[in-house]
What we know:
This protein has 212 residues and is mainly α. The protein is 76% helix and 0% strand. It is globular and about 65 Å long. The model has no long low-confidence stretch (mean pLDDT 86). It contains 12 helices and no strands.
Amino acid sequence: LTLITATISALIATIFAIPVAYILSRYNFPLKNFINSLLYLPVIVSPIALGAMLLIFFNTPIGTFFETHFFRVVFEVKGIIFAQFVVIIGLAISLIKSVFDQTNPVYEEIATTLGAKKYQTFLYNLIPMSKKGIISCFILTWAKAVSEFGATVTLAGATTMKTETLPVAIYLSFASADIHTGVIFILITISIGVSIILILNSIYDKNRKPKF
Length: 212
């Protein structure tokens, strides 16, 4: 469940973040600094507070209408994905924006002078040059989604064998004094973290030139 929900939420966040990060990186408009500041809100605000805000939202007429006419979120697996998405979306946009900021726009300008349209420079110049950065962003947001607990347990609950992600399983194990199972889940979490670090290091090591 943890792997599936984290993959879905990280994939949605990455796809959503790419065009938003492009706009924030390449264009100037009113309230741009304010929007950039909002991206760090999930980092500053407690995940439990974010989950509580989502829970309150889905108890408003708008949230109730959404659950009635589309799909249920509160105390459901979809709530896990929704909570993970809210926690990681700011991080995803910030990371991809940093990648775009560091990509020289001169290549896009040259392509434009040769007759390429904006969407073509975006698809065939910027995205290929930023590919490794985007992949790294996906991996980091995926790892963040895997470890997310506060917003998930507040919005989706902690129901065994239903909304029991890996962090929730650790919490339930220690709550029931099942230390052995809790330690196993902790070791799995550490293994995932170490694997993520090794993968990211391997990605960046390929970009490093040997020193003579």
